[in-house]
């Protein structure tokens, strides 16, 4: 336990479920190199075993442990307490824009459903008997795909996006960023089908380029740039469609 | 694909407005250097097809651009959808068009 009040952190943790809830304060001892996830785990193990939260890898790979920390979405396993704590206080809430299951655990269903709606899976046309496609790592398409590919599905971008808050149908930055990486994969054979979804009324044209997603992405990806790319791509695709119709 | 069409219309009208705004500001700054009264300005603009066309095009672009922007605000902040949203958007565009074209007529029309 902490030696004194100065050595402890006052942590306000949101407690409740889908029907609502409130903050509960805990005193947690400060430790060197302590992360937000360490704080939550300490509360659960020493103060209240009923506290619900989600984590898996603890090293920033799995994207499970994202929460709102002092009002900002963060990956809690890689966020050090001393970098975000204000006046020895922390406020920890479940991710914004997602329904709460209990306490700090959100229902990620709609987030992954939108990933599926945006055709966020690779669709190849070659069989295993054919030779491996030769893709130059220097090609502009491959570089665009590479820039967007390291997403860990943490939903931090989804929680930071005001357009998601305002328009519940909007596919969101993560699904669109994934679509952009696939649109730039020369091996993928579903690019037209994907563009139809991406350019739909719930797609990329809803984005106002506020850049919350790019600001808070823990892997420093730039979903705003990916969405801007999709906007340009969908306009070209639309014009091509019209030209094809015009010329039979 | 409504949103895609509106996106294209808003970008196209922005591309029209940007050079026209620069032209307007440039001419305004240049014209007032020696001091110019409203009567003197109107004497130069009245009956001018060029200024009528320039400001007429600007007003049309503004009407389309602003109506689409307002549509986004109405949809996101006030959760409006369907015909109500469309009617308000068209009314906004029509209002801007009428008010803007009246101003253009006042500047280029001959009394």
Give a summary of the structure in a few sentences.
The complex is a heterodimer of chains A (248) and B (111). Chain A has 248 residues and is of the alpha+beta class.
Q: Tell me about the biggest sheet of chain B?
A: none
Percent range of helical residues of chain A: 25-40%
Classify the secondary structure makeup of chain A into a structural class.
alpha+beta
Under CATH, the homologous superfamily of the largest domain in chain A reads Alpha-helical ferredoxin
Number of helical segments with 4 or more residues of chain B: 4
What is the count of structural domains of chain B? 1
User: Biggest interface pair, residues each?
Assistant: A-B, 14 and 11 residues
Q: Report strand % of chain B.
A: under 5%
Calculate the mean pLDDT score of chain A and round it. 95
Could you name the CATH topology of the largest domain in chain A? Fumarate Reductase Iron-sulfur Protein, Chain B, domain 2
Order of helices and strands of chain A: EEHEEHEEEHHHHHHHH
Q: Estimate the global geometry of chain B from the Cα principal axes.
A: elongated
In CATH, the topology of chain B is named 3 helical TM bundles of succinate and fumarate reductases
Task: Please give the alpha-carbon distance between the first and last residues of chain A.
Answer: 77 Å
Round the Cα radius of gyration of chain A to an integer and report it. Answer: 21 Å
The total beta strand count of chain A reads 7
Read across the widest sheet of chain A, the strand sequence of neighbours is 2-1-5-3-4
Q: In CATH terms, what is the architecture of the largest domain in chain A?
A: Orthogonal Bundle
Helix content of chain B: over 70%
**Gap between N and C termini of chain B:** 46 Å
């Amino acid at each position: 336990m902490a030696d004194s009040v100065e050595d402890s952190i006052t942590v306000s943790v949101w407690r409740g479920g889908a029907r609502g809830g409130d903050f509960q304060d805990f005193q947690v001892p400060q430790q060197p190199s302590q992360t937000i996830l360490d704080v939550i785990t300490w509360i659960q193990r020493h103060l209240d075993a009923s506290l619900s939260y989600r984590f898996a890898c603890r090293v920033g790979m799995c994207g499970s442990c994202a929460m709102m920390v002092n009002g900002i979405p963060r990956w809690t396993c890689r966020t050090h307490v001393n970098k975000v704590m204000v006046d020895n206080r922390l406020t920890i809430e479940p991710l914004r824009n997602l329904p709460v299951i209990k306490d700090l655990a959100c229902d990620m269903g709609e987030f992954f459903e939108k990933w599926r709606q945006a055709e966020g899976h690779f669709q190849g046309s070659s069989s295993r008997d054919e030779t491996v496609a030769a893709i130059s790592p220097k090609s502009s398409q491959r570089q665009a795909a590479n820039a967007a590919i390291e997403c860990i599905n943490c939903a931090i971008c989804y929680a930071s996006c005001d357009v998601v808050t305002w328009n519940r149908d909007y596919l969101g930055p993560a699904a669109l960023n994934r679509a952009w990486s696939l649109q730039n994969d020369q091996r993928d054979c579903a690019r037209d089908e994907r563009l139809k979804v991406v350019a739909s009324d719930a797609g990329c044209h809803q984005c106002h380029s506020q850049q919350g997603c790019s600001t808070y992405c823990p892997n420093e990806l730039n979903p705003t740039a990916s969405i801007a790319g999709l906007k340009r791509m969908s306009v070209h695709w639309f014009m091509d469609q019209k030209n094809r119709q015009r010329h039979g | 694909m409504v949103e895609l069409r509106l996106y294209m219309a808003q970008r196209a009208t922005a591309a029209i407005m940007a050079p026209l705004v620069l032209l307007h500001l440039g001419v305004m700054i240049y014209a007032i250097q020696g001091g110019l009264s409203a009567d003197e300005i109107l004497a130069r603009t009245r009956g001018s097809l060029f200024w009528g066309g320039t400001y007429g095009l600007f007003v049309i672009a503004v009407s389309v651009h602003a109506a689409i922007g307002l549509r986004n605000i109405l949809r996101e902040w006030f959760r409006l959808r369907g015909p109500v949203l469309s009617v308000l958007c068209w009314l906004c565009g029509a209002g801007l068009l009428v008010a803007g074209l009246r101003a253009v007529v006042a500047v280029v029309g001959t009394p």
